[in-house]
Every structure is written in C-alpha cells, then in structure tokens.
Amino acid sequence: MPAPRAPSAAPGAAGAGSQIAAPGGRRGLDAPGGRRPRGAGRQVLRWTNLALLVLFPVSWVAPLARAGLLPLFGLDEISVLTGIRALWGEDRALAALVALLAVAAPAAKTAWLALIHFGALGPRGLPVLGALSKLAMADVFLVAVYIVLARGVGVGRVETAWGLWLFTACVLVSMAVTHLTRAAAWTR
C-alpha cells in the first residue's frame, strides 16, 4: 500500500521555496537567493552600513589620484574634498553640485539606510531611499569623467591612488546594501 501523501501547501504558505507576502504587498522568496535577511543577515547589513558612515568620509579625504604637469616634478594628490575646494575658486555652482552628488547624497543615503535598519523608518522610508540612490550613484560617474578628462589633456600625468579604490568600494558596497535592503522590504 502506498504511503499517504501529505496535503500540498496552499499558495503563499511558508516553506522552502515558497513565496511570502512582505509588507506593502511585495512578495519575496524565503529560499536561498531570494530570502529576506533575518537575524545574522540583518546584523551584517546594519554593521556594513554603519561602517560606510565611517569609510565614506575617509574616502573623501583620501587621495583619488596624483596629478602633475611634468613627470620631473612632484605629483599633487587630489581627493574629493580638494577637488571641490579647487572647483570652488573657479565655478561655485559646479563645486556645489559636485559636493551634493559626491558627498551629501552618499552620506544622506547611508544615514537613511541606518534609520531603516534600526527601525526608525521601516519600509515607508524605501521610496526616499530610491531617490537618494539615484543621486549618490552620480559620484562614480564624476570620478570617471575627471580621470578621463585629466588623461585626455595629454600635457600632464595622472596616476590613480588608493583612495579611488576605497571610494569605489564604498559606492559598490553601498549599492549592494541598498539593493538587499529594498529587496527585503525591511521591517523591524
């Protein structure tokens, strides 16, 4: 006699690979690759984001590149903040725009994520997070344009420095934390 079969789970029932309803009507998977972060996963996101609150300011003062007119002379180190300061003397509107996109937007996005992670905002903070993410992604573009322009001049020499790697890593990690937070429809 065949063994009795267990009744099949109703649609939406919790179980390996089943879909669960998240707040706001979003659906997520509780299977690997789509599961909502719980316990240790949430803690990793929280602490990674808090580390970004320290690492972003370090990346703003770290040398992004070394630039000089002739190879015989020393190269000047350029950071995000020294670049903004140099722009301030030439074009204040552009300096303010760069400061907004490369400093203020990533800082605001990281702080906003911390508020979501620690339950001060919950999922209702996600729409603002999307807008901040779009602004904060512009900093990668600005750094790339700067290096391309500086190398395209052909008169001087530009070398990338460790701060560019740190700044890029901060941006990429921030993008990953943001994606995982939004995918999880973060709740308390």
Tags for this model:
188 residues; 3-stranded antiparallel β-sheet; mainly alpha; 6 helices; 2 domains; transmembrane helix; two-stranded antiparallel sheet; Paraquat-inducible membrane protein A; Butyryl-CoA Dehydrogenase, subunit A, domain 3
SSE layout:
Blueprint: E1 19-21, E2 27-29, H1 40-61, E3 65-68, E4 76-78, H2 80-90, H3 92-117, H4 126-136, H5 138-153, E5 157-160, H6 162-183
Antiparallel strand pairs: 1-2, 3-4, 3-5
Write up this protein.
- Strand 3 (65-68) and strand 4 form a beta hairpin.
- Helix content is 57%, strand content 9%.
- A three-stranded antiparallel β-sheet has the order 4-3-5. The chain has a two-stranded antiparallel ribbon with strand order 1-2.
- With 188 residues, the chain is mainly alpha-helical.
- Helix 1 (40-61) runs antiparallel to helix 6 and helix 3 (92-117) packs antiparallel against helix 4 (126-136).
- It has two domains: 1-36, no CATH class; 37-183, Butyryl-CoA Dehydrogenase, subunit A, domain 3 (Up-down Bundle).
- It holds the Pfam family PqiA.
- This is Paraquat-inducible membrane protein A.
- It comes from Halovulum marinum.
- The chain crosses the membrane at residues 50-73, 93-116, 128-149, 161-180.
- CATH architecture annotation of the largest domain: Up-down Bundle
Shape: elongated
The first-level CATH class name of the largest domain: Mainly Alpha
Q: Helical residue percent? A: 55-70%
Q: Biggest sheet, open or closed, and with what strands and sense?
A: 3 strands, antiparallel
Instruction: Please count the helical segments.
Output: 6
Strand content: 5-15%
Unreliable runs: 6-36
User: How many structural domains are formed by the residues?
Assistant: 2
CA distance, first residue to last residue: 49 Å
